[in-house]
TrEMBL record:
Gene Ontology MF annotations: lyase activity
High-level lineage: Eukaryota, Fungi, Fungi incertae sedis, Zoopagomycota, Kickxellomycotina
Protein name in the entry: Leucine-zipper-like transcriptional regulator 1
Keywords carried by this UniProt record: Kelch repeat, Lyase, Repeat, Signal
InterPro entries reported for this sequence: Kelch-typ_b-propeller
Coiled coil: none
Organism per entry: Dispira parvispora
Keyword Signal: yes
KW Repeat (keyword) present: yes
Encoding gene (name): LZTR1
Top-level lineage group: Eukaryota
Amino acid sequence: MIHVAQLFTCLLLAGYAGAQTQNYARYDHAMAYLGGYLFVAGGRTESKDFTDTSLVLSLGTRVNSNTPDWQVQNGTNVPRGNGMAMVGLSSKYKFQVVLYGGDIPKDTNQYSDHEFSVLGQPDGDWGFISQSEIPARRMGSTLTYAPDREVIFILGGTEQSDTDQMAADPFDHMYFPASENCVPVRMQSEAPSSRFNHGAVMLNSSHLVVVGGMESATQAASLDQVHLLDTLTQTWSQVTTQGSEWFQSLTSSPPVVYKQRLYFFGGRIQNNNQTLDSFLVLDTTTYPWTWSNETLKQDPDQDSLQGRYSHTTFAAGQYMFIAFGKTEQGETDELVVIDLENKKRINEFDPAL
Ligand SMILES: *[C@@H]1O[C@H](CO)[C@@H](O)[C@H](O)[C@H]1NC(C)=O
Ligand SMILES: *[C@@H]1O[C@H](CO)[C@@H](O)[C@H](O)[C@H]1NC(C)=O
Ligand SMILES: *[C@@H]1O[C@H](CO)[C@@H](O)[C@H](O)[C@H]1NC(C)=O
Ligand SMILES: *[C@@H]1O[C@H](CO)[C@@H](O)[C@H](O)[C@H]1NC(C)=O
């Protein structure tokens, strides 16, 4: 049992630490990686619909996960909203972060309907791409860049920000950054149902996987089947999975891929009604694809990881970064780094490794 005086000291220390480093806690933000930087756009807190800052973190130097050196993006037209989708183009011909959708403050001069917000360099100004074919603004979509096809897939989302009204929009568009051309995706019977707050990630350079999400405010998408898109032929197929019986559904949990496995930390389960604190793996090297629970190793001095959702993830080689999100206590400012090869939470990311 902690003595009252000790507790008070802890609180004082916590207050002191808080005064030293800015607290950028948020959830429902967007994140993308480009050219050695992690970009974070917008997000919200319990008390504010829109955070004041969008951030950038260099991964070119060592990152201590307890004191990440987030810098505030200070160019012009920096996007600030929640429920947006964002991706970095690691393409030969273009260096660009593309952002789409979300809810934005009414009083700001930001991108609007049928527009992307785009960033061309780390400290730069954000610009816009306007096109009538870009779908109207949606919340909870995903943007996924398919390198073999040099195309971004805009998948799912909902036009309503009112959670009781949420109805998913169809999966439908792809955007060719080279020609700045946006066109509908040919839909087939094997394509995913309309959904939002799902996970979408490239399994390899040609195949995109869609997992989970909500089909409406109360109906989660089944996990017994996940969807695979061959981006070269634009053909959807369904893949059977096993092992998801106990958690049934998975939303607001963006996956990363390492060695043909999808890794998820946290998310919402049981029809969007419970926050998960597990580290889940979907192994695509077996048939059916197999879900499992993994135990994350951590050092005794590390606090146990709280469940969270509406966070963002990124994988650099064998390292998974988990940024911000919402826990049962509200928004968090945590940056968690996991060594996927050793299934261990680490305190420091070294880009040289
Ligand atoms: C903008 O931010 C960068 C770091 O992200 C910093 O080097 C630069 O001095 C800032 N510029 C202004 C005008 O604050
Ligand atoms: C990507 O993954 C899919 C599904 O497992 C597989 O069919 C395809 O051959 C893979 N492609 C490459 C280039 O590994
Ligand atoms: C979520 O859980 C609460 C309390 O357990 C329950 O009242 C509510 O109906 C549940 N909502 C859904 C959508 O399952
Ligand atoms: C995963 O962990 C949960 C909670 O500890 C447990 O109920 C469930 O049986 C586990 N599932 C698998 C597939 O290991």
